[in-house]
């Protein structure tokens, strides 16, 4: 291939097409004319800045552009021309919208008539990979080096002043005459490629062999890129298959977990039904209350009222629950021993009095029911009504309560009189857990409500709470099943709750750092009593209803919840 067949204009056109094909994909004849109009102005305004051979060619032959500008062709065109741009270039006509006007159609309706402008466009395809490298190699080797700096200056001028893009990219450089140029087209940049060409001329290697080798390298590079793309596609498909497999496994595990959770929840419902006191037992307790009220009224000849509190009033009574009564007298209030004597005189059997308990009581058995009677305990009634209100809001509370009580019984930690947890303390722990730890909350904080409080005071204690608002469905935003709630409850009080530093505060409906100091041990021993666990009363806010628990017993309580948690997790994984 003879280098004399490439003139400045032909080579410049090739480079312009190479530049425009990068960002534009097509170029109009008008844009091409603007390029040469700018180039002509550069030669006219700065003729001494360009190489002399290039300047001499301008005066030879002319070619009219669509706008009357002259494009000069050098005399080498008589020997024939060639191109290093590897695609056929043809001018195509393209219709471009250029506004329009409104007119009336045959029905008299106003319609918009668009107008179009016909543009002459040169479709271009961007050179990629080995094609671009091949173009730049042939430019460096085949185009005469006397043109390189001129083309580099002209291309940079078009980048800076005519085009709104950066062409095919690449940095700029400064030539020895101080002009800015596109580095990849400059003579110095392509010197190494030209040097290789010089070695070819001395017989070291034929240009055709090197050109063939380059083509082979480019083809190998293209093949490797294709293999890499295929490998990436295989990896993508494998990852997609693995993700689908993992999602399927996850769905299957969720289905299995839901099935196991349903089995545990169903067992809890059956346990509740088997433990809860029957309607007949509740009727018997109510009849026993009425009988006691009649008998005491006749015996003391006074207006006597007997109220039920405790589990039978709160709705958490089981088959083995004791009935708790408190007696109100109108005129005369007997002591607990006097009340016990009166019950024996009336004819009640197995009467026992406990006068030195925190709440003095008289116990007896009637119709197979163990009954504890106290004198004027309004706080117990209020506590029972509060618990009953919570129990009516969400059925999961009652279901969890019977399972928790069964767990406490099995582990021997349900006994307030022997230094463990009372049923009342367990109830407070469950209520506050459902208020504070469950997210979203399942139970509201009735004592913190700003809606309708009952304004109840017993002594100096504020016993008010919202008892009129209908909170049914309050916990519907938390769909956790009763079985999962039981597991979470045991996990929290087995592993999370800090027995030494935190308190269960039903008044606030929160589990928080301790805010109350323990009272003195005795009147004579003013040292603070040890509270290894703190579960506060909802109304007497400074009273710890689990204050009798010893340190070793609290460790057993914690371990019992941990054992139950492990068992429940194992049951839910089977």
What does this structure look like?
The structure is a single chain. This protein is an alpha+beta fold. The chain has three domains: about 170 residues, no CATH class; about 100 residues, Beta Polymerase, domain 2 (2-Layer Sandwich); about 190 residues, Orthogonal Bundle (Poly(a)-polymerase, middle domain), CATH 1.10.1410.10. It is built from 15 helices and 16 strands. The strands form six sheets. The protein has a five-stranded mixed sheet with strand order 8-9-12-11-10, sandwiched between helices. A hairpin with a 5-residue loop joins strand 4 and strand 5. Helix 12 crosses helix 13. The longest helix is centred in the middle third of the chain and has 69 residues. The chain is elongated. It starts with 7 loop residues before the first helix and ends with a helix. The N terminus is likely disordered.
Instruction: Please give the CATH architecture of the largest domain.
Output: Orthogonal Bundle
Find the structural class using helix and strand composition. Answer: alpha+beta
Question: How many beta-strand elements?
Answer: 16
Q: Please, how many helices?
A: 15
Q: Give the integer mean of the pLDDT values.
A: 81
Kindly report the spatial arrangement of strands forming the biggest sheet: 8-9-12-11-10
Percentage of residues assigned to helices:
40-55%
Sheet-strand content, in percent, reads 5-15%
The biggest sheet, with number of strands, parallel, antiparallel or mixed sense and barrel status, is: 5 strands, mixed
Task: State the low-pLDDT regions, or none.
Answer: 1-5, 52-81
What is the first-to-last residue Cα distance? 81 Å
CATH topology of the largest domain: Poly(a)-polymerase, middle domain
The coarse overall form would be: elongated
Query: What's the number of structural domains?
Result: 3
CATH class of the largest domain: Mainly Alpha
Radius of gyration: 49 Å
């Amino acid at each position: 291939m003879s280098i004399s067949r490439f003139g400045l204009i032909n080579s410049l056109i090739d480079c312009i097409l190479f530049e425009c094909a990068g960002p534009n994909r097509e170029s109009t004849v008008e844009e091409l004319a603007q390029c040469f109009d700018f180039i002509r102005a550069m030669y006219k305004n700065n003729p001494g800045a360009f190489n002399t051979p290039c300047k001499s060619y301008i005066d030879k032959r002319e070619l009219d552009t669509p706008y009357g500008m002259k494009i000069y062709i050098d005399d080498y065109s008589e020997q024939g021309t060639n191109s290093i741009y590897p695609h056929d270039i043809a001018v195509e006509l393209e219709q471009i919208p250029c506004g329009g006007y409104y007119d009336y159609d045959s029905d008299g309706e106003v319609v918009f008539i668009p107008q179009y402008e016909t543009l002459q466009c040169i479709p271009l395809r961007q050179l990629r990979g080995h094609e671009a490298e091949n173009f730049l190699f042939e430019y460096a080797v085949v185009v005469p080096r006397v043109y390189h700096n001129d083309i580099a200056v002209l291309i940079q001028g078009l980048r800076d002043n005519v085009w709104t893009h950066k062409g095919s990219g690449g940095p700029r450089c400064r030539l020895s005459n101080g002009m800015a140029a596109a580095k990849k087209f400059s003579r110095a940049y392509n010197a190494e490629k030209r040097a290789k060409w010089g070695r070819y001329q001395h017989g070291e290697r034929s240009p055709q062999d090197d050109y063939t080798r380059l083509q082979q390298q480019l083809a190998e590079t293209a093949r490797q890129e294709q293999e890499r793309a295929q490998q990436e596609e295989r990896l993508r498909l494998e990852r997609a298959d693995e993700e689908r497999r993992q999602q399927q496994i996850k769905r299957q595990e969720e289905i299995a977990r839901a099935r196991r959770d349903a089995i545990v929840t169903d067992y809890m419902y059956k346990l509740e039904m088997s433990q809860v006191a029957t309607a007949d037992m509740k009727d018997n307790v109510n009849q026993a209350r009425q009988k006691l009220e009649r008998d005491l009224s006749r015996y003391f000849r006074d207006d006597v009222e007997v109220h039920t509190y405790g589990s039978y009033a709160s709705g958490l009574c089981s088959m083995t629950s004791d009935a708790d009564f408190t007696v109100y007298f109108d005129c005369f209030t007997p002591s607990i021993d006097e009340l016990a004597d009166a019950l024996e005189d009336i004819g009640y059997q197995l009467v026992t009095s406990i006068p030195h308990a925190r709440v003095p009581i008289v116990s007896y058995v009637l119709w197979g029911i163990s009954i504890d009677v106290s004198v004027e305990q309004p706080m117990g009634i209020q506590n029972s009504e509060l618990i009953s209100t919570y129990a009516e809001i969400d059925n999961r509370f009652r279901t969890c309560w019977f399972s928790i009580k069964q767990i406490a019984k099995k582990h021997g930690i349900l006994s307030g009189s022997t230094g463990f947890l009372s049923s009342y303390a367990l109830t407070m722990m469950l209520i506050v857990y459902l208020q504070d730890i469950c997210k979203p909350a399942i139970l509201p904080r009735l004592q913190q409500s700003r809606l309708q409080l009952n304004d109840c005071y017993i002594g100096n204690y504020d016993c008010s709470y919202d008892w009129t608002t209908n909170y049914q469905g309050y916990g519907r935003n938390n769909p956790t099943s009763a079985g999962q709630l039981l597991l979470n409850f045991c996990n929290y009080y087995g592993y999370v709750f800090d027995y030494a530093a935190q308190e269960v505060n039903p008044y606030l409906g929160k589990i928080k750092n301790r805010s109350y100091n323990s009272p003195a041990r005795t009147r004579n021993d003013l040292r603070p009593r040890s509270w290894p666990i703190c579960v506060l009363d909802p109304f007497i806010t400074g009273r710890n209803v689990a204050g009798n628990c010893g340190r070793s017993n609290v460790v057993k309580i914690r371990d019992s919840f941990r054992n139950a948690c492990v068992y429940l997790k194992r049951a839910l994984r089977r």
